[in-house]
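step: validate -> pass
step: tokenize input -> pass
step: predict -> running
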Amino acid sequence: MPGISEYLVVGAALFALGLVGFLSRRNLIVIFLSTEVMFQGVVLTAVAFARFHHNLEGQSFALFLLVIAAVEAGLALGMVVMLYRRRGTLDAQSWSVMFG
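step: predict -> pass
step: emit ->
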């Protein structure tokens, strides 16, 4: 069975890959998916620490984070659809026009 270090490495790798995708892309859907990958890296780290310390608080916190991720996905999808209908593009530079 893998130890905590393997889970932490995978969680850090997920977070790093998501961060690279977030910083290097301009498409809003790819930015959103990169944010979700970073979020899942954090959830994996929380579950790994909970498993290592033999308590349920980390796992219940991870479940709470997954619920928040689902709500975030719904809101972000609605915002992306609204932006696409208004601007006809999913380029992230369109957001700067909306916010001044």
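step: describe -> The chain has four helices and no strands.
step: cleanup -> pass
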